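Hi R.,

Here's the chain you asked about this morning:
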Amino acid sequence: MNKKLQAIFFMTFLMIFLPLLSGQTKKNIKDLPDRHRKWLTEEVVYIISPKERDVFLRLETDRERDILIEAFWKQRDPTPGTPANEYKEEHYRRIAYANQRFGKESPEPGWRSEMGRIYIILGEPKSIDNFENESEVLPTVVWFYEGMDKYGLPNAFNVVFFKQDAVGEYKLYTPIKYGPQSLLPLWKGDVKDYQAAYNKLLEVSPTLADVSISLIPGESASLVTLSIASDVMVSAKIPAAGYEGVKDAYAEKLLMYKDRVDVEYTANYIDNDAQLDIIRDKSGVFYVHYLVEPKRLSFEESQGKYQAWLEVNGTVSDSSGTTVHQIENKIPIEFTEEQIANIKNKLFSYQDMFPLVPGTYKFNCLIKNPVAKEFTSMEANITIPEAPSLQIGSLVLANRINKDSKYKGKNKPFQVGDIQLVPSPRNDFVRSDTLYLFFQIFGLMEDLRQNGRLEYAVSSETGQKLAREKALKDYPDALNFTEEFPLADLSPGYYTVKVTLADQAKKETLSREAQFMISPMPGLPRPWILSLSQPAPDDPSYINMLGNQYLNKKDLAKAKSLLEDAYRKNLRSVKYALDYGRALFMDKDYPRTIQVALPFLQGENKYDVLEILGQSSQALGRYAEAISYYKDYLTRFGANLNILNSVGECYYQLGDLKEALVAWERSLVLNPKQEELKKRVQQIKEKK
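And the predicted structure, written out as tokens:
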């Protein structure tokens, strides 16, 4: 990954995760229960990542910590489909071996020794050279390792231990910290003259002389100074090898969603790639298009059928934490044996979309698969502009587009007008691909539309590779823009595509960039897509959705206008009527609320209809009428705390204290902790 991509991903992480984690208090290690303190500071101290350690200290209960421990080992299990966890077994074997073989010259257990630490992290060395009975050198042991490059280490390297002053525990040697002279007893020369010390060691053992200036074979031949790379390897790379390659994002997800997923899910976080883009439709409404590609989707086989379930829960919340929009979907998936064979080697992409009113939000999407008790999630920041000024929207990079999509003219995730975009959240391509670049320009004035130009540049760190420009007026659409870039002439590597909007004088007005990668592979696995069916673009459900979002934001004027529009477009919908009625009720237009809700008294969702009719009648002072609606509710749907309290209030206003007490005392049976209500009941009883 190039430095620019790394910087972008790091900033995205900071924006999304730090606010979520900041509310969690970090525990002091000494305050942990004994078994959890022992696990953290002794058993996994060398193999736990900083992120996992940080999350472990932020968890609040023993159960949460036990869940993380279970997830910790699952993330490292090389054969997750079997009962045994070979990694865990090998780790505890190494601890036992270290305690048995090392640290004999110290009162501390062997796992605390330098040899014990290296052995637990790296395991058995390929070979060992002992220099323990040599009069010319201090007791020294050289461990040789190879084939460790997958852990971020050199493919071959040495680890050296020596006894300083010829006694005590073995210390870990590095050339910069100690130098060749530290391996020689009673060294009489200049303490800084490592060259003379090296020459002396060369007389005793060429092998020991070489490792004294570099722990990396082959490096010492070209060195005129001590190896800095060796010190970096020992001080940074070997400690990090204990958790190299571990996808520790699961720990953050466990912390974030521990209150929203059942216990059996929390140790089964599935990593994913995700993408979210904001696309404006021709009506001016902004839609959030998003996709989530988990690393796996597990199926359960039963009688030749392969089944999975997706439970999708998404929330869009504003800066105050108010939920503005919510997504709840339960999606069954069933395949035949032939179908599962066709997709088993493919990725899976879940895609969805929804409209969103202007504002700045945080989006959290949790996806659970109850069949395998596993979950994944995505988090993103969203900004929808109120009145878009001149700007270029996000660049969507697709590896394929369908110009003759069967969904033409319909709403579908990543469908824009007549074309269906097929993006990858990794922005990965192969040389045989064509990169399809889609973006929108908002706030484009007519003068710039007629005289402006778009300039495109595809470049890598080695310089510009592709360039073109085109007049804005040559595009048929003033909002949506698409360009195609065949990649056959580009070499594998990381690239940046830049779009620049220039005026008539070719002066840059604004620009936007995106990064992508061309893989050296001949082909890449592309996912099978699960995309939820969407209502037609003119369906009133979108207006209703936007109206409810404004209602959640307490913007009654805009909410009423949109909800009334949806209601009038489908006068038979009880949902639209109730949503509009709630806006009217919040605006204290109680007569109109009753007028809208009353026709649905005999239909579906009658409990909601009865409640809002009772509340409106009560607000108008028509208490007997309100009691009638409330009692009908209680008869049909059973006891409800709020309804009982409202019945009691209505009787109280009518002066019927006896019936008020009956309702309120039933309410107190349901919830005895209503202190204010207790006081009112007591006051009434005292007046009798």
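Residues 25-241 form one domain.

Let me know if you need anything else.
M.
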